[in-house]
Amino acid sequence: MRFKRRTxxxxxxxxxxxxxxxxxxxxxxxxSFLTEFFADVExxxxxxxxxxxxxxxxxxxxxxxxPHSGVGTVPWTFALVxxxxxxxxxxxxxxxxxxxxxTILNAxxxxxxxxxxxxxDSQCYLRHVATNTTTAPEHNPHRPFSxxxxxxxxxxxxxxxxxxxxxxxxxxxxxxFRQLGFHRVTAAGHKDKALEYGxxxxxxxxLPTQHVLYFGLxxxxxxxxxxxxxxxxxxxxxxxYNQTLMMLSHEIFDPEFGKRVLVDHAFIVxxxxxxxxxxxxxxxxxxxxxxxxxxxxxxxxxxxxxxVTNLPLPTAALPDSTSWxxxxxx
Length: 330
Description:
Order of helices and strands: HHHHHEEEHHEEEEEHEEEHHEH
Largest sheet: 5 strands, mixed
Shape: elongated
Distance between the termini: 62 Å
Protein name: Restriction endonuclease
Number of domains: 2
CATH topology of the largest domain: Restriction Endonuclease
Helix content: 25-40%
Low-confidence stretches: 190-195, 322-330
Organism: Nocardiopsis exhalans
Number of strands: 12
């Protein structure tokens, strides 16, 4: 996505607040406040002391060059820039809907075929006029991460080093799949090992056609390998084989429809690495129809998805969380 330089310079003026004091609708931002502005939208741009308008326009051009998916959309980071620029708390000489500021912004965005508007949550969003498409958050786990996102990913990885399988399921996988649009995400008796039938979680996903797909999930804490003797903390893929067969062949009861159904796909999720040999072994052991139903997710997949969906870290993963001893030190 590319905007005309004229448009970028005008939006840069709005971010800088380069308007006469008596008629301004935008907050004036000096060098340090420009750095703070871009930090608020989870970027690493730091003002270098150069001309503010040109520096901001250059930063916006780089943001618009970020990879993103969807016709008639801009990178989510640019949408966050507009959302931060139009924060209702920054209203000057107008109400929280900021009609004056919105008019100025839309005069520039119209040149690119976009329109800014306030939704019911009082946040400003970008809509492509021709396609009526609103830019939504990017959940692409393969996009470049910011420094803040890399730090969160590192903290979560350290948490997974010590998390139990129950914590992996309850603190990470359940909120993650709910955030990704799955519903009826239900833990299947993992703690007491009752009525699992090869799966720790079952859930379903509704397609745009309103057809429903059912998923079972088997989670393991550590690495999945195909070696003859697995090291401590690792799981041999042969142990997953029977659980996968049970998962694919055993019915689950969906209370929303009042009937029993088979799962369409099986997630094999590991808190560590799933080796290529393990994937190949399970693929060869299953028949063709079963093989197509298996989806693998290892630690890297979990970390990337958790970060891009912007889920809060578990309390134990936060850097200021403290594990208190059983007895006070006095």
